[in-house]
Amino acid sequence: MATKAKYSIGDIVKLKSGGPEMTVQALPTVSNDYYYCQWFAGKKLEQGRFPADSIELVQPVNK
To answer: Domain boundaries in the chain?
Structure first.
């Protein structure tokens, strides 16, 4: 039985240890327990996969 994803596609997250804000691109699957995220390093689009325990949701700034 699959568990509910902690984050949704399009959510803005960051590594708990720091780094750039990233957008969740793909959710974990039954055979893969990683979130795929993407972000910009300057003008270059980067991507990586991260376990749920290593990322956290970025709280929007109220203006």
So the answer is: 12-57
